[in-house]
Design brief:
Elements lengths: L1 H4 L1 H9 L10 H5 L5 H15 L10 H10 L2 H14 L3 H9 L3 H10 L2 H14 L3 H9 L3 H9 L6 H11 L3 H7 L2 H13 L2 H15 L3 H9 L2 H16 L1
Helix pairs in contact: 4-6, 5-6, 6-9, 8-9, 9-12, 11-12, 12-15, 14-15, 14-17, 15-16
Length: 241
Amino acid sequence: MLSKESPDSRILIANNGGIPPPPPPPLVYLLSYTDSETQQHIVTALLNLSLDEANKRLIAIPAIIQVLRYGTEEAKENSAAALFSLSTLDENKVLVGCSNGIPPLVDLLRTGTSRGEKDAATTLFSLVLNQANRSRAIKAGIIPPLLHLLEDKTLDMVDEALSILLLIASHPEGRNEIGKMTSIQTLVEIVRDGTPKNKECATALILELGSNNSSYLLGALQYGVYDHLVEHREMSGAARR
């Protein structure tokens, strides 16, 4: 009777749990199982389902982030891959960021297997295309593991690290942390010794840093970036002849 005759009562009843929320979809519900093998299979299934464009708005991102935090190593890797697939939608980039999904991705970048690092880096690149997520990534500590990837060439992730750093450098806090002299020296070494794509990205990053603080450009010049760029240009010109 209250719901029939009183509009205020309808609101009160609904706000106090009178209308239960719909149950989670079966696959998402199974993610809460403590059995690691079951959880791993479900994450893999959700990853495959996320490849379909229509499914990207249906999959519960917070549930995947929980697995990214607490799952097995393989489940974390598949969760990161699923978040990459889902983050191709701009609205999902926002949702991952607002659901605190960036810190566990940074943790995976820092401590994961080589596959985990690649999955995390690919997903983080997609997420930091969103301006607000750049600040979240910086606060989560993304810069030190990215700089480590630049310095340790055996990991073969220089391209990924440079691409993310170039986006992060557009943020004032990011520029300050990336622009430490040790980082500038590493970038100049990449301009000297890296692949053509590495050289291009490292040069762009130095210019991005220097566009807001000339001391970064002076530091790069001290480490010999001008000579390396001239040498690279001469070699490129000779190759085209």
